[in-house]
UniProtKB/TrEMBL annotation:
The keyword Hydrolase does not apply. PANTHER family: MALTOSE ABC TRANSPORTER, ATP-BINDING PROTEIN (PTHR43067:SF3), OLIGOPEPTIDE/DIPEPTIDE ABC TRANSPORTER, ATPASE SUBUNIT (PTHR43067). Residues 27-273 form the ABC transporter domain. CDD domains: ABC_NikE_OppD_transporters. GO terms for molecular function: ATP binding. The keyword Transport applies. It comes from the Bacteria. SUPFAM superfamilies: P-loop containing nucleoside triphosphate hydrolases. Keywords: ATP-binding, Nucleotide-binding, Transport. It holds the Pfam family ABC_tran. This is ABC transporter ATP-binding protein. It comes from Streptomyces polyasparticus. InterPro entries: AAA+_ATPase, ABC_transporter-like_ATP-bd, ABC_transporter-like_CS, Oligopep_ABC_C, P-loop_NTPase.
């Protein structure tokens, strides 16, 4: 039987009772606003997320829904005109939102690291991999020359690149190798959390899948947690433990990945699932979601998805839905609100 309470999402890994450990990452009531000439734009609206040690959390949604803004906010990398309007980002209980840049620099690379969409932009084009890896290690302690060389070779081997490429410049590597070299750099100091923003998006489909498999294998081998942003829901279906589906700055569905894939409870999640081919499932015709996401400077009243929703009904354009508990997941859809049940039944 499905429960329909309005609720705050809980940690997927904490299910099953027993003592609940402090999550590695706990994002609470997080809102991020861009100050624009047209007024404030809320790109992340009151978001909750808990990621346990070694957990893989994926954030999916169409372009412009706030995924990268969320990721930058978690990593402490937001710049004006963006600002955190409210909420906290607790990493091992310490709030990254209130830390100074110096304190954040202490944690970056060592405790958490970030892999961005394009390694070509993230890596320094005029320095060899060896020089860049050395800089990252030197900035975080007194490593000897031998230690730096040994660790640099070790992480390159981990991602399947011949250590001879320590002498290579980024432009001498293929796109897939550059992304792997960036991931290797992120693993240099064995962080507990790796935050990834569409790390496979610049690659062809075959290279994308093989990099995903490699990321998952590394995660299982080394035990780090992952927050992974992508617009392609099918990409994370077999790799993530927890899934957040974002639309127009809000989480519209959140829960264990298997639950959301097997029985998506939000019409937007269903639309996204039908918009991408499954890696292993049967061949079915792909359908897009008609229309496009709203302008966040003037989102539609009521449910933000209602102008595109195939299941829209009379209250959707006036009543903003909360996140309602639906079995093991949460859904921001009035179809799951107790009052809506009476209206629709
Ligand atoms: N520099 C900016 N100035 C003003 N508003 C911005 C800026 N960057 C982003 N936004 C607003 O924030 C929203 C979310 O942007 P964001 O880049 O986080 O989305 P996304 O889901 O990561 O998209 P993509 O997949 O294209 O990167 C945008 O739709 C836009 O309204």
């Amino acid at each position: 039987m499905r429960s329909t309470r309005s609720a705050t999402p809980r940690c997927v890994r904490c299910e099953g009772g027993g003592s609940v450990p402090e999550p590695l990452l706990s994002v609470r009531d997080l809102s991020v606003v861009y100050e624009t000439v047209r007024g404030p734009v809320t790109a992340v609206d009151n978001l909750q997320l808990e990621v346990g040690e070694g957990e893989f959390a994926a954030v999916v949604g169409e372009s412009g829904c706030g995924k990268s803004t969320l990721l930058f906010a978690i990593a402490g990398l937001l710049n004006p005109p963006a600002r955190i309007a409210s909420g906290s980002v607790l990493f091992r209980g310490a709030d990254l939102v209130t830390m100074t840049e110096r304190e954040l620099n202490e944690l970056r690379w060592r405790d958490y690291s970030v892999v961005l969409q394009s390694a070509m932009n993230a890596l320094n084009p005029v320095a060899t991999l060896a020089a860049q890896y050395k800089d990252a290690m030197v900035a975080h302690g007194t490593h000897t020359k031998e230690e730096i060389h040994a660790r640099s070779m070790e992480v390159l081997r981990l991602v399947g690149i011949d250590p001879v490429h320590l002498r290579s410049y980024p432009h001498q590597l293929s796109g897939g190798m550059r992304q792997r070299a960036m991931i290797a750099m992120a693993l240099l100091l064995a962080p507990d959390l790796v935050i990834m923003d569409e790390p496979t998006s610049a690659l062809d489909v075959v290279a994308q899948r093989s990099l995903m498999v490699q990321i998952k294998e590394l995660q299982q081998l080394l035990g780090f947690a992952v927050v992974f942003v992508t617009h392609d829901m099918s990409l994370v279906s077999h790799f993530s433990d927890q899934l957040l589906v974002m639309y127009a700055g809000q989480v519209v569905e959140q829960g264990p990945t298997r639950t959301v894939f097997d029985s998506p409870s939000h019409p937007y999640s269903r639309g996204l699932l039908e918009a991408f081919p499954s890696i292993r499932g049967p061949r079915v015709p792909l359908r897009g979601i008609p229309g496009s996401p709203p302008d966040l400077a003037a989102p539609p009243p009521g449910c933000r998805f209602h102008p595109r929703c195939p299941l829209v009904f009379d209250r959707c354009d006036t009543v903003p839905p909360a996140l309602y508990e639906v079995g093991a997941a949460y859904s921001r859809c009035l179809l799951h609100a107790p009052a809506a049940r009476e209206v629709t039944s």
